[in-house]
Amino acid sequence: MNDPAWNRSWVKRLQISLIVTTAYPVLTLLARTLRWRVDGQERLQRVLDGGTPPIIGFWHGRILSGTCYFRDRGIVVLTSQNFDGEWIARIIRRFGFGTARGSSSRNASGALREMIRHVRAGRGAAFTLDGPRGPARQAKSGAVWLASATGSPIVPFHTEADRSWTTKSWDRAQIPKPFSTVTLVFAEPLFVPHGLDADGIDRYCRVLEESLDQARVRAESLAGGGHP
Length: 228
Hints:
Distance between the termini: 39 Å
CATH architecture: 3-Layer(aba) Sandwich
Shape: globular
Oligomer: single chain
Strand content: 15-25%
Structural class: alpha/beta
Largest sheet: 7 strands, mixed
Number of strands: 9
CATH superfamily: Glycerol-3-phosphate (1)-acyltransferase
CATH class: Alpha Beta
Order of helices and strands: HEHEHEHEHEHEEEEH
Strand order of the largest sheet: 1-9-6-2-5-3-4
Number of domains: 1
Helix content: 40-55%
Low-confidence stretches: none
């Protein structure tokens, strides 16, 4: 594996360490204050009861709430090898996640092969479906490809907090405010046929987008208001 650019700069390495040591305790405290309203839990439970590790799918803008809810379950997350991916990986490992390093532009095939090994060993996986760079709410192929290769279903979810901040980043990331109630809506599991070609993978990506849009509408309704 090539040495990433950030690792060749002591300034970048220091920045990553500072981000992690500052953000982790703050996020831990925030997570402890959140209240949860979960809709469709039985959809995830059916997959777990069937003995098949799920592939959890969600939009990049909901990383924070997803991390808080799914912590300490050993779920493996695909994270990029760039500067942001490194500090994100270090933080989520502290929250009890595993990581596979790669992205759509760097070490993609190696990372997805690693994800296959984890899923076949019985570990759940998770994907930000619109990837590390977007466009927002446009599903990339990774989760569908993994589901087609392993037979594990994709379980999409969306979250909405009743009180939150929204960043100006491309993903319009939502940060729940302390003591807010976060509504999490699970969509129906998506079972993907084995051995899909590129056209088939693209079709199932569009199905995922529609499923997540329905979950978003449901979550916004239950949360008592819409978010951009």
